[in-house]
Amino acid sequence: MSIAAGLLQAQTARFEQVDPLLPAAAAPPEGDVLTAALADGERVAGVVARGRYETGTAPTLWSARDVVELHPLVGASGGAGMDALLRELRRMLDRGAPGADSSCVVTWPSRDVEASEPLLAHGFAPLSTLAVRVTAAEPEPAGDLAVRLATSRDLAVALELELAELAYSAMVGAAIDRPNARRIKRAGLTRHLEQGDPVWLGERDGVVVGLAHGRLVDAGPGAPAGARLRAGCWGYVNCVSVRPDARGTGVGRRLMAVAHRELARLGATSTFLYYNPPNPLASVFWPRQGYRPLWTIWEVRPAGALR
Ligand SMILES: CC(C)(COP(=O)(O)OP(=O)(O)OC[C@H]1O[C@@H](n2cnc3c(N)ncnc32)[C@H](O)[C@@H]1OP(=O)(O)O)[C@@H](O)C(=O)NCCC(=O)NCCS
After folding, report:
1. Could you tell which of 281, 284, 291, 297 is best to mutate to test the pocket of ligand 1, judged by most ligand atoms within 8 Å of the CB?
2. Probe ligand 1: pick from 129, 168, 213, 247, max atoms within 8 Å of CB?
3. Which domain holds residue 34?
4. Using one digit for the tens of pLDDT, what is the confidence trace for 11-61?
C-alpha cells in the first residue's frame, strides 16, 4: 500500500473514532504535495490546492479570492502531524504568498480537538462550522407566524433579507460584503427561485419579517458533498435572516420548524448548514434548533499571515 493510501485508511479510522457522523476520509484533490517526518519517524502528507474566485462570482461573498487550501493526510498522528504539516505550509508560503484578498484554509472534524492547538498556534481562526441536525421525526411546527413559499414576485423583499444576513455575517465571520454583493445575490436568488428551491417567508400582519432558504443536496458516492457528509439525501439550509426589529421574537424558530418539516417531506433525512462561531446570534440559535458542529473551517487571512 502507498504511503498516501495507508494515511487515508488510518485517517478514516480516526474519523470513525472521533465522530460517528463523519464520512470516510476523502482522497485529496490535485495540488502540491507536502510531506513531513515526525519525531517518532512516522510520515505525514498533505496536498495544497490553490484556487482563485473571479470578481462577481458567488463564492467571493463567503471566501477570500485567492485560497490556499491544505488537505491534510495525517493518519492517526493527531496534533503532532497537523503541526508538522503547517510548518511545511509556512515554508511553502515563504517562497511566495498571494496578496491581501487571500486565505489559508483547513477544514477539519470539529471533534478532533487535538488538531485545534496547532491550528491556533499557527494563526488559524475557527471562522465557520458545517453543522448537522439528525432527527427521527419532525413535529408539527408550533407558533402562529404565517409562513409561505416565496415566488419570483417576492424577489425584492427576499433580496433585502439576504443582504441583511450578509452584512451581519460579514462582521462576525468569513463572509465579505463586497461592492457587487447586491448584483451577485440577486442573480443567485433569481436562479434559486426559478429552479424551485424552497424560500420560506415569515409574515407578521402581512409584512415579511424573515426568510429561510434551502434545497436538497445528494451526498451519494462521487457527489462533492460526499467528502463532508455521509451518503444520503440532505436538506441544506442556505440562508436564514430575520429583520433586525423582529429578531429574538420567535420568527427564526418558527421558520426553521416549517423548513425542517418541508425538507423532510421532500425527502431529506437530515439537514446541514454553515454558521460562524463568532456570530453571537447564530451560535446560540443553531444549537437551539438541534444543530451541532461536524466540520470546522479554519482560516488565516491573508494567507501570508500564517505563522
Ligand atoms: C439568527 C437569526 C436568524 C435567529 O432568528 P430569531 O428570529 O432572531 O430567533 P428566535 O427569536 O426564533 O430565537 C430562537 C432562539 O435563538 C436564541 N436567540 C435568538 N435571539 C437571541 C438573542 N438576541 N440573544 C440570545 N439568544 C437569542 C434564543 O435562545 C432563542 O431560543 P428560545 O427562545 O427557544 O429559548 C436572527 O437573529 C438573524 O437574522 N440574525 C442576523 C443574521 C444571521 O446571523 N443569520 C444566520 C446566519 S447563519
Report:
1. 281
2. 247
3. 3-129+298-305
4. 999 999 999 999 999 999 999 999 999 999 999 999 999 999 999 999 999
Q: From the CB of 251, is ligand 1 less than 6 Å away? A: yes
Domains contained in the chain, number: 2
My answer on whether 195 and 230 are in the same domain is yes
Q: Would you say the CB of residue 256 lies under 6 angstroms from ligand 1?
A: no
Grid cell 440532505 is found at 234
Residue closest to 186 by CA, chosen among 207, 203, 166:
166
Q: What is the pLDDT of residues 68-109, one digit of tens each?
A: 999 999 999 999 999 999 999 999 999 999 999 999 999 999
214 shares a domain with 145: yes
Contacts of 49 (CB under 8 A, 6+ apart): 28, 29, 30, 31, 69, 71
Residues 65 and 199 both lie in one domain: no
DSSP 138: P
- 200 and 60 co-located in one domain: no
